[in-house]
Amino acid sequence: MATKKKMTLYLPEELLNEMRQEALRQDRSLSWIMEAAWKVARERLREMPGVEELYEDYEDYEAAS
Q: pTM of the predicted model, to two decimals?
């Protein structure tokens, strides 16, 4: 079994309300909904550029100007 750790997340109220509604609809906990959402989204998030990549692109743009 995976180790569980407690964490506090600050989310916009509207997002939290949507997550609560989905948790009720699926008869699941909020933590289950968050974990499932991460599993669905992680590959897409890995495709997004990181800060270092964005900074390099900006430096290249500035050098070309």
A: 0.69
